[in-house]
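Customer escalation, tier 2.

The customer says the design service returned an amino acid string that "doesn't look like it belongs to this structure." They asked us to rerun it and document both sides in this ticket. The original C-alpha cells are below, unchanged.
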C-alpha cells in the first residue's frame, strides 16, 4: 500500500540526537523509556512508555507499558497533527550520572521547543517553552540537532528564515540563541543534520535535495553540492555518520530505496556522493518503498531503513569506503499496516540489553485516521545479519497521537 501523504512540509520540526557520554557508554542500560512527540494541534504533548520484561505487566514480554501521568502537556506548544517530516522531532539526553534525563520536543506549528525533566522515574515534569528570538511563531522550524556530552549544544533549522539557530543547554534549560544563514543550492532549508566525527563540522541535508557542511568554529559554509542521486530524482533527507568519515544520506524517492555516501575530508569538504539504489540502480538495495528515514547501528555496519511508502523496514550493509549493499533480509509487512496505521515514521535504536538478540528497534507508526491514535512497533535485529523480526508484543497502541511520526529511546540506568 502506497500512501499519498507528503513527507516534507516546510512547517515541520525534526530533531536529531547524538548521545556519546562516557558514563553511559560504560554502563549497560537496565531498560529503556520510549518518548513520543504526539504532535497535537491544540496543545501538544509527549507520552512516555517503559520497556518491561515482567510477565505480570506484559501478556507477551517484553512489552511497552505506559508511564503513569502520560501524556505530559507542553503548555501552549502546538503541533501539526502529523503534517511534517517523518523523522526525529523529539530528543532525550541524560544528566546527573544518567539517573535523570531531559526531553526536548518540537512544536512545529508554533515553532517552539518544549523542555521536560525526569526524576528517578520516567514521569516527566514540564520546564519551559523556548523560541528563537530571530524567528516568528510561524517561522516553520524544520530540524534540530543535539551534540553529545553532559551540557550539549542544540542546533535548530528554520525554514522561513533559512537559518540555523543554536543554544547552550543547562540541565533541562536552554540558554541564549544565535543564528547563521543555511540555504541549499535550490533554496531549501536544512532538513537533517549530523556532527562529523572529525568535529567541528556539521553535515547537513537540505529539503531541496542538496547537501552541505558548516564549520562550527565560525559558522561558515565549507562545502555544498547536489548529490549524484539528485539527477535520478533522489532527494537526500536524513543523514548519519560512519566510523570512517563518510556521511550516509537516506533519500526521499518516488518508491525505491536509495542511499548515498560522501567522504568528509579533514577540512570539512564533502566529496561527490556515491549513489546506490534508486531509479538509476533499480533493485540494487532491495524492493523497499521509500528511504528518507534511516538510522545506523552503534558499530555503523548496518543501515536500518523505514520504508515510508509501505509498512515495512529493511536493512542495508555498510562497509568501509562508503560502500552500501543490500542485506537480503525478508521484507515483511509489519502488523496492523493498512488496518490500524498507514505510514512508518522515525525508527530509533535501543542497543545493549533491550532484547536477547542484537539491538532493539522502535518504530513510530502513524495512524492516519485508520484508528483513534497511532502505534509503536518493536523489533529486534540480528547482530550479525542486521535482519529484523517484530516482537510478539508489537505494536503498542499510542492513543495520544493521531499521526505519530517521531519517537526517542532513552536508556534507563540502575540508581547508584
Amino acid at each position: 500500500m502506497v500512501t499519498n501523504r507528503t513527507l516534507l512540509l516546510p512547517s515541520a520540526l525534526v530533531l536529531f540526537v547524538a548521545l556519546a557520554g562516557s558514563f553511559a557508554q560504560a554502563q549497560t542500560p537496565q531498560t529503556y523509556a520510549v518518548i513520543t512527540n504526539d504532535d497535537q494541534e491544540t496543545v501538544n504533548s509527549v507520552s512516555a512508555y517503559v520497556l518491561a520484561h515482567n510477565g505480570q505487566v506484559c501478556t507477551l514480554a517484553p512489552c511497552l507499558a505506559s508511564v503513569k501521568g502520560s501524556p505530559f502537556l507542553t503548555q501552549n506548544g502546538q503541533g501539526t497533527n502529523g503534517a511534517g517530516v517523518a523523522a526525529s522531532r523529539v530528543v532525550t539526553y541524560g544528566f546527573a550520572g544518567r539517573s535523570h534525563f531531559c526531553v526536548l520536543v518540537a512544536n512545529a506549528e508554533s515553532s517552539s521547543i518544549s523542555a521536560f525533566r525526569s526524576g528517578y522515574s520516567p514521569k516527566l515534569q514540564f520546564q519551559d517553552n523556548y523560541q528563537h528570538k530571530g524567528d516568528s511563531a510561524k517561522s516553520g522550524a524544520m530540524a534540530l540537532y543535539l551534540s553529545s556530552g553532559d551540557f550539549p549544544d542544540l542546533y535548530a533549522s528554520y525554514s522561513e528564515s533559512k537559518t540555523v539557530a543554536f543554544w547552550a543547554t543547562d540541565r533541562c534549560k536552554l540558554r541564549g540563541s544565535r543564528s547563521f544563514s543555511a540555504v541549499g543550492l535550490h533554496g531549501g532549508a536544512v532538513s537533517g543534520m549530523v556532527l562529523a566525527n572529525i568535529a567541528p563540522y556539521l553535515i547537513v541535508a537540505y529539503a531541496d535535495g542538496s547537501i552541505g557542511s558548516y564549520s562550527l568554529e565560525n559558522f561558515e559554509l565549507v562545502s555544498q553540492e547536489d548529490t549524484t542521486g539528485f539527477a535520478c530524482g533522489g532527494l537526500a533527507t536524513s543523514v548519519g555518520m560512519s566510523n570512517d568519515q563518510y556521511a550516509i544520506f537516506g533519500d526521499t524517492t518516488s518508491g525505491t530505496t536509495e542511499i548515498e555516501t560522501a567522504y568528509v575530508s579533514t577540512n570539512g569538504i564533502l566529496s561527490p556522493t556515491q549513489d546506490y539504489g534508486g531509479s538509476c540502480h533499480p533493485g540494487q538495495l532491495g524492493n523497499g518503498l521509500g528511504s528518507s528515514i534511516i538510522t545506523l547501528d552503534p558499530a555503523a555496519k548496518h543501515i536500518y531503513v523505514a520504508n515510508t511508502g509501505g509498512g515495512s523496514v529493511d536493512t542495508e550493509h555498510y562497509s568501509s569506503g562508503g560502500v552500501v549493499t543490500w542485506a537480503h533480509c525478508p521484507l515483511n509487512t509489519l502488523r496492523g499496516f493498512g488496518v490500524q496505521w498507514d505510514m512508518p515514521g522515525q525508527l530509533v535504536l535501543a542497543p545493549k540489553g533491550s532484547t536477547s538478540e542484537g539491538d532493539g528497534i522502535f518504530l513510530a507508526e502513524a495512524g492516519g485516521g485508520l484508528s483513534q491514535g497511532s502505534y509503536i512497533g518493536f523489533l529486534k535485529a540480528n547482530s550479525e545479519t542486521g535482519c529484523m523480526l517484530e516482537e510478539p508484543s508489537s505494536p503498542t497502541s499510542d492513543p495520544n497521537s493521531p499521526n505519530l511520526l517521531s519517537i526517542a529511546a532513552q536508556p534507563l540506568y540502575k540508581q547508584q
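Tier 2 assessment: The sequence is consistent with the input. Residues 169 and 416 are 24 Å apart (CA to CA). The mean pLDDT is 86. Sent an explanation to the customer and offered a walkthrough call.
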